[in-house]
Design brief:
The structure holds two protein chains of two kinds. Helices cover 39% and strands 20% of the residues of chain A. Chain A is α/β, with parallel strands linked by helices. In chain A, the strands form two sheets. Chain A has a five-stranded mixed beta sheet. In chain A, strands 1-2 form a two-stranded antiparallel sheet. Chain B is mainly alpha-helical. Chain B has a domain at 49-113: Helicase, Ruva Protein, domain 3. Chain B has six helices and no strands. Chain B has helices at 13-39, 49-58, 76-90, 95-106, 121-152, 165-182. In chain B, helix 1 packs antiparallel against helix 5 (121-152) and helix 2 (49-58) packs across helix 3 (76-90). The longest helix of chain B has 32 residues, at 121-152. The chains are: A alpha/beta, B mainly alpha.
Chain lengths: 173, 183
């Protein structure tokens, strides 16, 4: 009879296993299905007026950064780092592109002035570029290699370490 | 005071019919579930654009609030997503195409209901397996407990026949005395 009673906890084992598996996953972490896929093409009107076409940047490594002036403090922390990366690696083929999402033009321009950003930044009316990249929050940054393939997605601010680990190796000719 | 007649032991077949009644209730429940499924609204052909946008948005998880649908969320991103859905519908894309677009960008995570394939089938199937297994357990256990009661206390319980003549004698005497008391 006792082995029959042992069956009851035994029957619960698969359920406990399923729960244990569930607890190891982070429900807030959203894996991007875009990694190792071609970067979705887009054109954007940069704040200083000119059009920017991602296709035109093929052959360069692109750091595509999604930000917003209301994204405090993460976007404010990473802005100097992005500018630093742009200045350090532009001669080796790095292009930094900022997409200002869900923002007003005035606030966006003020943010650019505040950090004296010299890389290309533009608005994303209707969120079309952001949604095409599966963006769910700011800041998020995509590293696109010279072949136009997404190599890495950074959720949260860009850091010097992230640039060294994810961007620098792609710049080697 | 209850009538003494209600204390007369029921025949053994009562247990059987008790089991049948459980099955009857289960069948009714199953029929109700089936009917509820059949009564779900069938998709109508002509729909206005906003209604279609709402329907698709209701099936997508809002990325910034997580526990709301794109349809219910007041966030800027959800608003923009509804705009994208609207534009795609205007461009003639089907609901399946639009859902596939969002899934290709955000992963299956964006769908509020998991797709009916692979590992996900567990989520769709297990509740029904649980209901059926539970029903079997209820029928099995009630029958066993009813049987055990009869075996251990010699037919003391209502509706259980006396196990030996001695008990029957006591029972008869008790009934007689109760009858006299009632008079």
């Amino acid at each position: 009879m006792s082995w029959k009673k042992a069956l009851i906890p035994l029957a619960a084992l698969p359920l406990i296993g399923l729960l244990a598996y569930g607890f190891t996953t982070d429900p807030r972490a959203i894996p991007s299905p875009l990694i190792k896929k071609p970067a979705p093409p887009f054109t954007m009107t940069v704040y200083d007026g000119g059009p920017l076409d991602l296709e035109g940047l093929r052959g360069k490594v692109v750091l595509l950064n999604f930000w917003a002036s209301w994204c405090f403090p993460a976007c404010y922390e990473e802005a100097p780092e992005l500018e630093r990366a742009w200045r350090a690696y532009r001669d080796r083929g790095l292009v930094v592109v900022g997409v200002d999402i869900q923002d007003t033009e005035a606030a966006g321009r003020q943010f650019i002035d505040q950090f004296k950003l010299t890389f290309a930044n533009g608005p994303d009316p209707g969120g079309k570029i952001a949604i095409d990249y599966g963006v769910y929050g700011v800041p998020e940054t995509f590293v696109i290699d010279r072949q136009g393939v997404i190599a890495h997605k950074q959720v949260g601010g860009v850091t010097d370490q992230m640039v060294a680990e994810q961007v620098e190796p792609l710049l080697k000719p | 005071m209850r009538s003494p007649a209600s204390r007369v032991p029921r025949p053994a077949s009562a247990i059987r019919s008790g089991g049948l009644r459980v099955w009857g209730v289960l069948c009714l429940l199953a029929a109700a579930v089936a009917l509820a499924g059949a009564a779900a609204p069938a998709p109508q052909a002509p729909q206005d654009l906003e209604e279609q946008v709402r329907e698709i948005a209701a099936q997508l998880r809002c990325p910034v609030c997580q526990n709301l649908s794109v349809g219910d969320s007041p966030s800027g991103l959800a608003n923009e997503m509804r705009g994208v859905i609207r534009e795609k519908l205007k461009a003639g894309e089907s609901r399946q195409q639009i859902e596939a677009y969002f899934t290709s960008k955000y992963g299956e995570w964006i769908l509020l209901a998991p797709m009916k394939k692979g590992f996900n089938l567990l989520a769709w199937g297990l509740p029904f397996v649980g209901i059926v297994a539970g029903a079997f357990a209820v029928v099995f256990l009630t029958r066993r407990w009813a049987g055990r009661e009869g075996a251990t206390d010699g037919g003391g319980g209502e509706g259980v026949p006396p196990a030996n003549p001695e008990d029957a004698a006591y029972r008869e005497r008790l009934r007689r005395e109760l009858d006299e008391f009632a008079r």
